[in-house]
Write a structure and sequence with these properties.
Radius of gyration: 35 Å
Number of strands: 61
Helix content: under 10%
Number of helices: 3
Number of domains: 4
Mean pLDDT: 88
Largest sheet: 14 strands, mixed
Length: about 700
């Protein structure tokens, strides 16, 4: 009886034990994060057994980490926080394989991830931290590994302040990426690609962010103090102001050119009285001087002044400022639904009443609005105004189909959308309200999805629309030119007339291009493969800042050519045969598989290097002159022949291994030589390599010259 009762009790106890589960950790949820006290320390005794993953919680490095727990730490001042999980144990007693994430923000769904790491079993990470910010630490096991004891160690080191002044070309190395710049004089951060995250204390001086020639510059540090900020942006990159900590400086801000994009995740990007001056970059003409990539980027107390030809681009976001001063030729682009709230609005110096301003008055574009004072959103009770000022201008006959990427017109007051009709003039007219529109757009432009036909007259019409009615605009026309005829003045490239064009896209693969004006090719990667008739003009083939370019098309006809820029390869199976003058600047490789790469009278200057990638790359009758110290012909072991060569002091020929150059006249410095063989022993200042230059008698037409 006793044994039976004992067995029964044991069975009940086992049953109870099987139904009891361990409680979830106290810090399972974000709101219950355990606070780490002090600037350094360690905490053990916690686990993630039966931990859960909350709705709205972000992934901790990997999407399969679902058993997470939370800790938090409050920063007292700017510095570096280091976290370590070394010593945490899993269910086997081994090192816990942890995934670690650090966030800031007010709520679980409002968190911004600042750092994450999973590089192995022992995690350690460091990150810059800011005064007054609470940092939330999320920990979960890789593959949902369970920790029976979490050992979290933290240490904080205040950032050192480094006195700075003058022009700093690389702040990350010159100041130290983990330090704060303490300005003791006017200071400029240079244009190195990538930018930096260094905080700056401005002690009443002028702090400048300068993207130089246009490299992308991302500045995510925070600027405090009493001085001003100057921003110089432009070229082929964007100056971006981002980061999680807002700027609080109190001085004057000047934005020069643009675009400057604003994306602080909290706080302001620009402060104080703000002046926007200088036309937007030709490379980004539609982005504006200042463009929002997040809401609330300018201090509510700021007065903003725009000069002629400048504009703000809200890009659909909203912001609030104190005063806005616009003049004729400046405007605000709200894009779709962007709202700018201002206490006072001045147009050409005159204060405007408290009214919500919408598109159509020449100062505001887009489907958003500017709300002045306490006017509230605009009240629309009338149909929209007439669409006007078409681009291209009506009846234009110089439209190039490869470069007409969109149709444009002025914003119509009160319009919320537009129907666009586009058709060839040879086809029946499209009638609004009867025929379906080609497109319906929110803004006052229409991006054409494909190239139009050459030598074709087109008609187009815009209908402005809102809930109270439509306004059918006039029927406009334009005529396209032959896409094979190209000129920089006729068809500017995607970065403006000064940077030329993409030849292949302009002419069209399979066509032969003809220059109708001197032209500079756009330097984008890829080069061109179509054939080109110079037609008496000059072609400039330019790789710009060093993008790879293969010029494999055949260039022919009367005219001049300038080959310039690094990483430029003259290739292809059909040789160039143009008759004119050739100029070579910078490094160019010659690799035509048949025919010539360079023709006519050839001048190599500004430190140019011509490198052979195959034999016989220069026309036999060419006269070649090397000027400017450092200019070089590099035969690279190949053989070549042409009429004459002049090497000025400081220029040279590198034959490579056994390369032979045959000419009928050779001038080295001030001396001209006829007949003979010249190598690195006879002319050490001009010739290097194991080959030689052979001077022969004047070549008669049809004469075969041995290059042995």
């Amino acid at each position: 009886m006793k044994s039976t009762l004992s067995a029964l009790c044991m069975g009940v106890a086992a049953s109870i034990a099987l139904t009891v589960r361990a409680a979830t950790p106290v810090n399972d949820n974000f709101i219950d994060a355990i606070e780490l006290s002090g600037n350094s320390g360690s905490l053990s005794g916690n686990n993630n057994i039966d931990a859960t993953f909350e709705t709205g919680e972000q992934d901790c490095v990997y999407g399969d980490v679902t058993s997470t727990v939370w800790f938090k730490w409050v920063c007292e001042s700017v510095g570096t926080l280091t976290l370590s999980s070394l010593g945490s144990r899993d269910t086997t007693g081994g090192e816990w394989d942890v995934c670690l994430g650090v966030y800031s923000g007010p709520t679980l769904t409002g968190l911004t991830k600042l750092a994450e790491q999973d590089t192995g079993y022992e995690e350690e990470m460091s990150l810059n931290v800011s005064s007054g910010t609470t940092y939330y630490i999320q920990m979960g096991g890789f593959g949902n590994a369970v920790a029976t004891n979490i050992l979290l160690t933290w240490s904080y080191v205040p950032l050192a302040t480094v006195d700075v002044g003058g022009y700093i070309t690389n702040p990350k190395s010159e100041i130290g990426s983990l330090n704060t710049a303490n300005m003791t004089n006017n200071t400029t951060f240079g244009w190195q690609t990538g930018g930096c995250a260094i905080p700056v204390i401005n002690n009443g001086f002028l702090f400048s962010l300068d993207s130089g020639g246009g490299n992308y510059f991302n500045y995510t540090g925070d600027i405090s103090g009493t001085g001003g900020l100057s921003i110089a942006a432009g070229g082929i990159g964007i100056l971006h102001i981002g980061g999680s900590v807002g700027n609080t400086y109190s001085g004057v801000t000047t934005v020069n050119s643009g675009p400057v994009s604003l994306e602080k995740s909290s706080g302001n990007a620009l402060c104080g009285a703000i002046t926007v001056q200088g036309a937007p970059s030709d490379n980004f003409p539609n982005m504006g001087n200042v463009v929002w990539t997040a809401a609330d980027q300018i201090s509510d107390a700021s007065d903003v002044t725009l000069t002629a030809s400048t504009f703000l681009n809200l890009a659909g976001f909203s912001d609030t400022i104190n005063e806005l001063h616009l003049v004729t030729g400046s405007h605000v682009q709200t894009a779709v639904g962007g709202v700018l709230k201002v206490a006072k609005l001045f147009l050409n110096g005159e204060q405007q009443p408290d009214v919500a301003y919408i598109a159509g008055d020449g100062y505001i574009f887009g489907t958003g609005y500017i709300e002045v004072g306490a006017s509230g959103p605009p009240v629309i009770t009338d149909p929209p105004a007439e669409p006007v000022n078409p681009v291209p201008a009506t009846a234009s006959t110089t439209v190039h189909p490869a470069f007409l990427t969109k149709l444009d017109w002025d914003d119509s007051a009160r319009a919320v959308s537009y129907d666009v009709y586009l058709w060839p003039a040879s086809a029946p007219d499209l009638i609004p309200g009867i025929d379906a529109p080609t497109a319906n757009v929110s803004l006052s432009d229409y991006s054409i999805p494909a190239d139009l036909n050459s030598l074709t007259e087109y008609k187009w019409q815009v209908v402005a629309k809102n809930g109270f009615g439509d306004f059918n605009g006039a029927v406009w026309t334009f005529t396209t030119v032959d896409r094979r005829d190209i000129s920089s003045t006729l068809t500017p490239g995607p970065h403006g007339p000064a940077e030329g064009m993409l030849i292949d896209a302009t002419v069209g693969i399979g066509n032969t291009g003809r220059l109708v004006g001197s032209t500079q090719t756009y330097w984008g990667s890829g080069g061109f493969s179509v054939d080109l008739n110079l037609n008496g003009n000059m072609l400039i083939v330019d790789t710009g800042h060093g993008n790879h370019m293969d010029a494999s098309g055949s260039v022919f006809g009367n005219g001049d050519v300038r080959w310039q820029g690094p990483v430029l390869h003259i290739t292809g199976s059909v040789g160039n045969s143009y008759t004119g003058t050739t100029y070579v600047s910078s490094a160019v490789s010659l690799g035509k598989s048949s025919g010539n790469a360079l023709c006519g009278t050839i001048t190599a200057d500004t430190g140019a290097t011509l490198t052979w990638a195959g034999p016989d790359q220069i026309e036999d009758t060419s006269v070649v002159t090397l000027v400017t110290t450092g200019t070089l012909l590099n035969l690279a072991g190949y053989s070549e022949k042409f009429a004459s060569l002049t090497l000025e002091t400081g220029t040279s020929v590198e034959t490579g291994s056994g390369g032979v150059l045959t000419v009928t006249s050779l001038t080295l410095g001030a001396t001209t030589y006829t007949l003979g063989m010249f190598d690195n022993t006879s002319s050490p200042d001009f010739i290097t390599g194991t080959g030689y230059i052979q001077v022969v008698e004047k070549i008669k037409p049809g004469t075969v010259i041995s290059l042995q």
